[in-house]
Input
Amino acid sequence: MRIETAIVGGGPAGAAAAASLAAAGRECVVLERTREPHHKVCGEFVSIETQDVLTKLGLDLRALGAVPIDTVSIHSGRRSVRAPLPFRALSVSRQRLDAALLEQASAAGAQVRRGVTVQSVARDAERWALRCDDGAVIEASNLVLATGKHGLRGIAESRDGSLVGLKMHLRLRNAAALNNNVALFLLDNSYVGLELVEDGIANLCLVMARDIAARVGPGWAALRDHLATAQPQLAAYLEGAEPLFDKPLAVVCPAGGHIHAEAAPAVYRIGDRLAHIPPFTGDGIAIAVTSGALAAAHIAHGLPPCAYLAAAQACTRAPIRLAGAISALAARRAGRAVLMAAAAMVPGLIGAGARATRVRGPALPMPDRGDSYAPPPRFFGSGSRP
Ligand SMILES: Cc1cc2nc3c(=O)[nH]c(=O)nc-3n(C[C@H](O)[C@H](O)[C@H](O)COP(=O)(O)OP(=O)(O)OC[C@H]3O[C@@H](n4cnc5c(N)ncnc54)[C@H](O)[C@@H]3O)c2cc1C
Output
């Protein structure tokens, strides 16, 4: 099979790239290794920029059952602060969101192949060859790498994997106490997010150091007991909560922020393969869908991966740096004390932090059949096109 663009990975990044390319009338295939919609480790907080891109792609989040979130409460030890968010966020499970986005890509005209794992990729002078586990070899002029936290044989990587992300869906006894609010609980080298998703289900999601996770041990009971001991305010929510998965979902993830910075890339990296923002911001999906649409715009207009990378770095760098600094401060008891005191003393500080950690793409028309989009010169850093 030969195709103009092959996208490896059908999460929000890959699906957004495919939907955008298809809307622009360009041929593409998305290869996703899972056969069915599935749950993923994620806080499931859908920020305003994510909503903007998803709406442009034709997705109706309310129709998926998404619920509104207007405030954030932050808890450390016995102290709490609560503040309005500077935007209305939404919350919906990734199982629903990712499936709807892939369906949208398919409806727009992208080829979507589920249950196909790309085992390796290689490039000759002209095109990429993708080897799939069903024996197929796909040749493509453009390769979009959207494999999330996973690497791909044939593409060099250096990634930190010092944290583990964990998630459990719960039926809480006092779910109403969480209405319209995302609760963040700060712990040593760890934080926990708790919010409602669709159908009154609560999503508990956290990051912690891998060595601590190994000490806590497997299974929900061990994790619940660890969290309840470490955070008394969280213990009140977990009391009598019914777990809805057999065991917590887990994924290895990097600490702090990270943006890919290869000098002469030949591949369009999007989503987590492009950049990682500390999860407390609830903005990883924004990076995924923004970078997916941005890569599609560059491909649709014949612009190379290096031009795309410069544009993507420009819109992710500042929020990732700030989120990394806040995350490092919150990791230690003394830093948390400073953060909590500042948040209590300065009204508007939490809202300002939430605003400053948003990743916004350039004001870029979504690629559309016949549009004449050319990225402004500042996308390329030096002011001229490569
Ligand atoms: C603890 C935690 C909490 C988070 N909370 C939030 C939050 O509340 N809000 C938010 O916006 N972001 C959050 N994030 C970040 C967000 O989950 C990610 O940034 C987002 O999922 C990235 O999307 P993606 O499409 O790049 O990757 P993914 O969603 O991981 O999708 C990658 C896809 O590629 C597929 N794949 C991998 N390898 C292959 C292969 N070889 N062949 C075929 N398919 C392949 C996988 O099956 C997967 O479906 C959180 C992250 C963590 C770790």
